[in-house]
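Handoff note, outgoing to incoming analyst
You'll be picking up this chain. Sequence as last confirmed:
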Amino acid sequence: MRYENRKFADQTIAIDGNQYIGCTLERCELVYRGGESTEISNCSLGSCRFTFEGPAGTTLNFLSEMYHGGFQSIVEATFNNIRSNQNQTSRTIH
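Most recent structure output, in case you need it:
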């Protein structure tokens, strides 16, 4: 679903597959489960928090275990790719 210039407050919102453009989100819990891609652009987020569940949560747990298991350089390389804005659905990190 596409939301433009809407205001959301004090809600738990499942964001998978949605587009938020120019919206204001205040004190919301934004839940991403690893489903369809989500777009959040030109929005104002005030006191919101992100929660990652399902496959998205599993991926973050995996990265945390890798990092603390001696593979910091691989995890850092993954985040460097994210910082460089390489929009890919599949990544290979060396």
